[in-house]
Structures are given as C-alpha cells and as structure tokens.
Amino acid sequence: LNDTGQVAGPLLAELQGIAATAFMNQGRLEEALALAGSALAADAASGGPERAWRARNVMAMAGLAYHAPHGRHFEWGPHIRSLEAISDTSGKPFPRALALWNRVFLAGLTERHDRAGAPARKLLELADRHDNPSMRAMGLVACGRVARWDGDTPRARDLFQQALGAAEAV
C-alpha cells in the first residue's frame, strides 16, 4: 500500500494480473489485455521482483485469441519465453508450467501437433518434480491431447481420466 492506502507496486501488478486472468477466462479479451498491460507497467515501475507473471500469460493467450480471428499477426512467443525466464529467476515452477501448457495449446491451434509432445512431457515431469496436483492435471491433459492427435484414443482416454483424478485431489 502507498501512503494514501492504495495498492501499489509489485502487489498491484500481481492483483491486476489475477484480475486480467479472470477477464480472459470470461472472454472479455480487450479488458484482459488492458489490465495485463497495466500490470506489466506497474511491475516495471516498481523495480521489484517479477510479480506480473499471470499478466504475461494473459498477454500471450488473450492477445492471440484477440488478434488471430481478425487476421492480425501477434507475437505470443516473447510472453511465453518471459514466463520461462520468470521461473528460472524466481524458482517458482508455475510460470513455466503455464508456458509449457501454452506451447501445447498453441501447437494444437496451429495444427503443428508434432511440436506438442516435448512440452507436454516436460509439463508432466515438472509437476512430478514439484509434487503438484494442479500441474499434474495440466500435464496429463496436455499428454492426453498429444495422444489424441497421434490417434491413440485409448491412451488419451486413460490420460484424461488420470487428469480428472489429479484435479479431484486439488
């Protein structure tokens, strides 16, 4: 909080990133992108640790969802790479988990299924290394998508069922 009692600095960046994610999940992409941009600006202005990683995720995914249908080119890669760098710097695994999830999602969206297997496996390995049921559910869904794209429906079904079990554990 600043001297007037308002949220400021790194905490503002974090809260705006959370709110931007909520807007993105509601399909309110313009608002999500605007709030994510504000979060990144607040993070940069604070000079503090990277707290706006959720905003980076919104910039990548909502940005793509907003621009692609209009035939506009959008560079999502730098935002995903920044999520990976945040994990490298902070030691927090979840920004990298989102980056890997996004890479699998984008491989499907662009019909480059051959690019999905490695990030899906890395996501599952990351989840297991950190014993995180949320990331495990994400990794199992990602691997299930890859199995489905490879035409292995029984394996995909098994992975999706395992993902449901992992999600229930959360």
Overview of this protein structure:
This protein is mostly helical. The chain is 75% helix and 0% strand. It contains eight helices and no strands. It has helices at residues 9-25, 29-46, 53-67, 77-90, 94-109, 117-130, 133-149, 153-169. Helix 5 (94-109) runs parallel beside helix 7, helix 6 runs antiparallel to helix 7 (133-149) and helix 7 (133-149) packs antiparallel against helix 8 (153-169). It is globular. 42% of the residues are buried.
Number of strands: 0
Shape: globular
Q: How far is the first residue's CA from the last residue's CA?
A: 32 Å
Query: What is the N-to-C succession of helices and strands?
Result: HHHHHHHH
Poorly predicted parts:
none
- Which structural class best describes the helix and strand composition? mainly alpha
Mean pLDDT across every amino acid position: 88
Helix content: over 70%
Give the amount of beta strand, in percent.
under 5%
Rg over C-alpha atoms, rounded to the nearest angstrom: 17 Å
Q: Report the sheet with the most strands, covering strand number, pairing sense and barrel closure.
A: none
Q: How many helical stretches?
A: 8
